[in-house]
Design goal:
This protein has about 250 residues and is α+β, with helices and mostly antiparallel strands. About 25% of the residues lie in helices and about 25% in strands. The chain is globular, with a radius of gyration of 20 Å.
Length: about 250
């Protein structure tokens, strides 16, 4: 018997039972919920439903157990096999988005820098779509991976992402609307950092003062994930520092 799995499942059932009892949920309402989940599955939106409502809770719990900097949801648009890049992410021809430079440093909890870490960077187009995911946008656009230098630093040029809605025409969007909420995510840049001997690190950087940054449909935005934007000539600049937790086993 898997004791950890058994405990988690029993605790989840107990927590659900408490909610059902406290809210006097009827058998009819329960059956409606079952039919709704079947619809979510049929429309292939189950990962979306779970990511929107639950992933940020897992991340918060994980962060409390380590010394890493704040993490965020990965989202559904990560692609493993993306080009190695040096100075800039590839953007679409005719991209009129604002120029953005992303600079960062990867460190250990004691402040030592981490060299040769692999940093994945990806974000939306100026129209709120993702390369390799949405029709007509090649997978090498608006995403790539690079290595940190001997000083633990990395830098990449791109264009400013924008807010966008999650898929909202199916059952997940209908549920969010019934709950009186919108389906927008604030503009953000995704990061995933890997280095042997350290736990994989996944986060997002949001822009101070950005629309929806205080009201993200996916939840989970904490102050440490919101960064001020500086201006250098024609470029906006995002400076981020990441702390990785060493693996303990």
């Amino acid at each position: 018997m898997n004791e950890r799995l058994t405990k988690i499942v029993r605790d989840l059932i107990a927590a659900a039972g408490k909610v059902l009892a406290e809210n006097n949920v009827t058998r009819e309402e329960y059956r409606q919920g079952v039919h709704y989940l079947a619809k979510v599955q049929a429309d292939k939106e189950l990962p979306l439903l779970i990511d929107v409502f639950l992933e940020h809770l897992v991340i918060k719990a994980e962060d409390h157990r380590g010394h890493n900097s704040a993490q965020a949801i990965e989202g559904p648009y990560f692609i493993e096999e993306v080009p190695w890049v040096e100075s800039a992410l590839k953007t679409a021809p005719g991209d009129e988005g604002e120029p953005l430079i992303v600079r960062g440093t990867v460190k250990e909890p004691d402040g030592a820098t981490v060299k040769d870490a692999t940093v994945f960077v990806w974000h939306s187009t100026p129209d709120g779509a993702y390369g390799g995911i949405h029709e007509g946008i090649p997978s090498e656009f608006y995403r790539g991976r690079l290595k940190t230098g001997a000083d633990g630093k990395f830098e990449i040029a791109t264009t400013l992402p924008v807010p966008y809605t999650i898929p909202d025409k199916g059952p997940v969007g209908a549920l969010i609307t019934m709950m009186g909420h919108h389906t927008w995510r604030p503009a953000h840049v995704h990061f995933k950092v890997r280095k042997d001997g350290f736990r994989e690190f996944t986060t997002q950087a949001y822009f101070e003062g950005g629309k929806y940054v205080d009201d993200d449909v996916a939840g989970g935005i904490v102050d440490a994930l919101i960064f001020p934007i500086q201006q250098e000539g024609k470029n906006k600049v995002l400076n981020v520092d990441f702390v990785l937790d060493p693996k303990t086993s």
